Amino acid sequence: MHALSVGVFAFQLCGYVALSTWVEWRWYHRRRGKEREWKTQPGKMHGKIHRRGAARDDDDDGRGRRGYYAWGLPALDLVRASPSKDGRHPSHACYATCNLVVSSLFAGATCEAYLAGDGKLFGLFRSTLVNASAYSVASAYSVLVGAVLAVTWQSVLEYYWHRAMHLPRVYRLLHKFHHHYKSPQPWDDLFIHPAESFGYCLILYSPAFCVPSLPVQAFLLYMTIMGACGVLDHCGVKMRWPFGAYDTQFHDVHHRSFDANFAFPFPTMDRLHGTHRAS
Ligand SMILES: [Zn+2]
Ligand SMILES: [Zn+2]
Q1: How confident is the model at residue 275 (pLDDT cuts 50, 70, 90)?
Q2: How far is the CA of 238 from the centre of ligand 2 (A)?
Q3: How far separated are the first and last CA of the chain, in Å rounded?
Q4: TM segments (predicted)?
Q5: What distance in angstroms lies between residue 256's CA and the mean position of ligand 2's atoms?
Q6: With the C-alpha atoms ordered 74, 261, 105, 98, is the resulting torsion angle positive or negative?
Q7: Residue 76 within a domain
Q8: How many whole angstroms from 64 Cα to the centroid of ligand 2?
Q9: What distance in Å separates the CA atoms of residue 211 and residue 200, rounded to the nearest whole number?
Q10: What is 73-110 written as a DSSP string?
Q11: C-alpha 219 – ligand 2 centre gap (Å)
Q12: What's the domain range around 193?
């Protein structure tokens, strides 16, 4: 086991927590009371941070209580009051914590496979990642092309995987957990049945093993895009990239209506299959 693999595991875990915490703090705490300006579905809120306390630290809730920030990290609900009373699913903390740890383990294992060189991870898998030479136009081009290939690979597999999750029997068994939240907020992206989450992690990390000669920098860029979009897709905050390339309301529509917008993170596959619905 390489120290770098442990570092990658920790970076993935801490990076996810940091981004989710920032969104939660920036909007759900600091801009509470002004949901009409930023919330994708302003009337629908759940979680501790929305039930108690005032909008901000420096005012009160009309009953003399100071506002405070209650961190929504799911692992905390494993040791404090029942989360189900706040609109959270009873299994939210358990599933979300398990999925966060497992996805971070995937990151560490992928790094280990890369560092193993000629060896094979667990005797089975060998990374296809290569190191692009630094600071050259050619390497920048190969990194960009590699990232596009990885995103495309993931987007195709994810679309059909997600459609399969909506088959009636599979939905009842696995995917209904993820759809428990009709208006997802920070941390809700982690609420997936662990079996579904494990299957999706195989897709998410598969470019490192299936896209030939993928520059490691391209894979890191791809993972940064996937990680950020995974959090933002479910954050419930209106955000849009220029020219409509990415819109957080795209996946919000999927949670609201079930039968459209299956793709992640970009809508291309939905447009090709006629399942796209504008937000
Ligand atoms: Zn979702
Ligand atoms: Zn779905």
Answers
A1: very high
A2: 20
A3: 46
A4: 6-25, 135-161
A5: 10
A6: positive
A7: yes
A8: 42
A9: 17
A10: -GGGGGTSS-GGGGT--TTHHHHHHHHHHHHHHHHHHH
A11: 26
A12: 3-273
What pLDDT does 56 receive?
47
Tell me how many degrees the CA angle 143-108-170 measures, rounded to the nearest 5. Answer: 95
Q: Is residue 115 part of a domain?
A: yes
Phi, psi of 39 (to 5 degrees): -80, 140
The answer, yes or no, to whether residue 121 has pLDDT greater than 60, is no
Contact 261, 251 (CB under 8 A): yes
Residue 40 is which amino acid?
Answer: T
pLDDT tens digits, 250-264: 999 999 988 999 999
Closest CA to 129 of 213, 207, 206: 213
- Whether 85 maps to a domain, the answer reads yes
Residue 279 counted as domain residue: no
Q: How many CA atoms lie within 13 A of 154 on its CB side?
A: 28
Centre of ligand 1 from the C-alpha of residue 154, in Å: 16
3-state secondary structure of 94: helix
Could you give the number of structural domains in the chain? 1
Q: How many angstroms does the Cα of residue 85 sit away from the middle of ligand 1?
A: 22
